[in-house]
Amino acid sequence: MMDRSYKELLKMRRFPHTWCPGCGIGSVLKNVAMVMKELGWNDKNTVAVSGIGCSGRMSSYMNLDAVHTPHGRALTAAETIKAVRSDLNVVVLSGDGDLGSIGGNHLLHTSRRNPDITVFCNDNEIYGLTGGQAGPTTPQGTKTITSPRGEPYLPLRLGRILTQQAPYFYARTTVYHLNHFKTCIREALLWKGFSFVDIISDCIELNGRRLGFKTAHQMFKWFDERFHIVEGVRDHLQEDELGIAKREVEEVSRPKEEAKAKVEVAVAAEQLKPFTLDELQTFDGTEGKPIYVAYKGKVYDLSKSPLFQGEKRMRCHIAGKDLTKDIDVAPHGDDLIFKFPLVGRLK
Amino acid sequence: MKQLISGNDAIFEGAFRAGATYFAGYPISPTSEILQRAALRSEEDSKFRFLQAEDEIAAAIATISASLAGAKAFTATSGPGFSLMQEALGWGHVVEAPCVFVNSMRVGPSTGMPTQPAQSDLLQIKAGSAGDYYPIAFYPHSVEECFRLTVTAFNAAEESLSPVILLADAFLSHLYELVDLEKIKTEIVPRSKGPLGKGQRLFTGTAHDKIGNVKTSDPVIYREWLGELKDRHFRVAEKYPLFEYLPSKDSNILLIAFGITSRIISALKERFSIFRPIRIYPVLEKELKEVTQSYPRIIVIEGSDAQYASWVEWAIGRKVMKVPCLGGGFKLKWIQSQIEDRLRGEGR
Questions:
Q1: Less packed terminus of chain A by CB within 10 Å, N or C?
Q2: Ramachandran sector of residue A298 (left: φ over 0; alpha: ψ -120 to 50; beta: rest)
């Protein structure tokens, strides 16, 4: 006998529900409730949040305190509830249009701030409630009522976006691969931090029939052809892979080699060519001559400096002069001048 | 102890006095200081939570959600940000989330003149979001009043179970005055709504019946619900019939002004009678009728193109003269000359 105690988490008095026969949302709702029941999550310790759309109706069928936000704002609401009430488990149940399109900015920023919430995205690649318009995840070339010649743009790749953050938890699964689906739900609920489950789901009435499928089952078989499960934990998932990509901490990037401190090159004064101030003045960069300047009794060749660029003057410094006083009051240090070759000394 | 503080500081301290434990905001002139103070307070006080959101949409949604989760919450913004918050404002009325939205007005539309004061968001507080709703809005005119009215706004929010709007303007936000906050006595209404995690309620922006079942095609339930909302808001608003009336013996001319313009024209109180509404919405209908009875001539001076004047005309049922101070041009001399023009029958 199957354990049906998960029904305590569903508002069975409100059934039959509003979704079409064959829709994947029922499966999402049921399996999330089953895993939550196994983990002991209930109306005393859990809040469900959802946005707008067919999938947004999920929270209203949960026997929990549920928050049904305006379109796209489920993540912000969930994050805030977790911030104010850290003792509650917060679950977001919403769709791809709500989370990826109108709530796209919140997806970027909430995942960046990494609150301990779990997001279940019913990704049916279509706007179902409004009649089957192309959504952000609709594959390129798919015919919908707002893309009658086929969707012209590439879809939003939620996996690629979310796995660029650190830390992250991104799982892709389908409503067809049931065992894998439940594993993903369990792992996501137990993950400490922002976890996102991208559930590839079917919308037979408003998407599948237009694609040529006759039943929801045919769509499930199509999912089976399109995707395959990969074992173990990955860093990233390819577009045809189902699995879990996660990382707890940011990959430590190698520290940059510290720039060597530029100091004055120690050269015996006798080895350097002596210049008088008058001689120095002739080397001002005009007529192809090099640019020499003096600093603390030494002469440097600044011809390669990008800031002089053949001009006699670079902002406040003049070529062919003793710049000792200039450098002392300049906003930069003397390391800038030590970068250049030492060519002589002042007499 | 007297302190030299700004209107923004007073608003933040008022919210803190009222028991606010959550602030969400997005930087915008002229209320960024409230955001900064909230950030500092969250460092000092672990009970105070703060979010610098990615935009005003998120800030407003976070404010409402924090309120549902059980915190007294508020947010602060200016005209353009307030436009983005309209969605959440409507949602807050439907899910009955008590919280406070501070809108310090600057010259609009759009980015407008970010550092210049205006009073042109009055219609936006009432009609910015979709559908019918009845927000309560207060408008102080001094730093001390900013403090007092913030507390009042939180109390009215708890009583009306809805977002309450505290208006200010760019001038008032950055006006510094000596105030002794400790000596100001306030009454604070405690939290009445149960926090999340206490049952099986549904907080939805969709039309719903009393137990939270979504009802999207039942006019009877909708009318009942909206009627209750309206009753509740007007009942709470009646508890706060805030206004200031300075009659002048020799004058049969009444000036109506609020916020910073009332502050400026207070120099004319010997020559004219002055009426200053503090509760901006719902409009002080009864009070306006009573006060304006004995005045044949009424001039409304405000920082918008006759937004409040139209409400006054609606409330008292006759025409008034208007002095719109547009583009942040709040100069006493100019206002005086405009008043003289109106009295001679010139201008609009």
A1: N
A2: beta
User: In angstroms, rounded to a whole number, what is the distance separating the alpha carbons of residues B338 and B332?
Assistant: 10
Q: Residue A77: list chain B partners with CB under 8 A.
A: 61-62, 64-65
Task: Indicate whether B225 and B274 sit together in one domain.
Answer: no
Q: How far apart are CA A307 and CA A315, in angstroms?
A: 8
Looking at the fold, whether B319 and B251 belong to one and the same domain comes out as: yes
B31-42 tens-digit pLDDT: 999 999 999 999
A43 interfaces chain B, CB cutoff of 8 Å: yes
**Quick check: is B218 in a domain?**
yes
Please, are residues B88 and B60 in contact by the beta-carbon 8 Å criterion?
A: yes
**Which of B86, B96, B73 lies closest to B22, judged by CA?**
B73
CATH number of the domain that residue B332 is part of? 3.40.50.920
Confirm whether B254 is domain-assigned: yes
Give the SS3 label for residue A36.
helix
Q: Note whether B106 and B152 are same-domain residues.
A: yes
What's the structural domain count of chain B? 2
**What residues of B are in contact with residue A115 (Cβ under 8 Å)?**
none
Same domain for B140 and B32, yes or no, is yes
Asked if the bond preceding B282 is cis, omega within 30° of 0, the reply is: yes
In a domain, B196, yes or no: no
For residue A312, name the pLDDT band (cuts at 50, 70, 90). low
Same structural domain for residues B264 and B282? yes
Indicate yes or no: CB of A81 within 8 angstroms of CB of B199. no
pTM: 0.85
Whether B205 and A70 lie within 8 Å, measured CB to CB:
yes
Q: How far is A44 from chain B (nearest CA, A)?
A: 5
Task: Verify that B327 and B307 share a domain, yes or no.
Answer: yes
Give the C-alpha distances (Å, rounded to integers) separating B19 from A32, B7, B151, B197.
Answer: 37, 19, 9, 21
From the list B184, B115, B114, B117, the residue with the least C-alpha distance to B146 is B184
Inter-chain contact B197–A77, Cβ cutoff 8 Å? no
Structure tokens at B7: 């209107």
Contact between A76 and B53 using a beta-carbon 8 Å cutoff = yes
Q: Is residue B330 part of a domain?
A: yes
**In angstroms, rounded to a whole number, what is the distance separating the alpha carbons of residues B89 and B106?**
19
Give yes or no: residues B120 and B233 share one domain.
Answer: yes
Nearest Cα of chain A lies from the Cα of B49 at a distance, in angstroms, of 7
Residue B191 touches chain A, beta carbons under 8 Å: no
> What residues of chain A lie within 8 A of the CB of B98, using their CB?
none
Which residue from B39, B133, B32 is spatially nearest to B88, judged by alpha carbons?
Answer: B133
Tell me the residue range of the domain where B269 lies: 244-343
Condensed to tens digits (0 to 9), the pLDDT of residues B103-159 reads 999 999 999 999 999 999 999 999 999 999 999 999 999 999 999 999 999 999 999
Residue B158 shares a structural domain with residue B267 = no
Half-sphere exposure of B85 (CA within 13 A, CB side): 32
Q: Which domains does chain A have, with CATH numbers?
A: 5-247 (3.40.50.970), 269-346 (3.10.120.10)
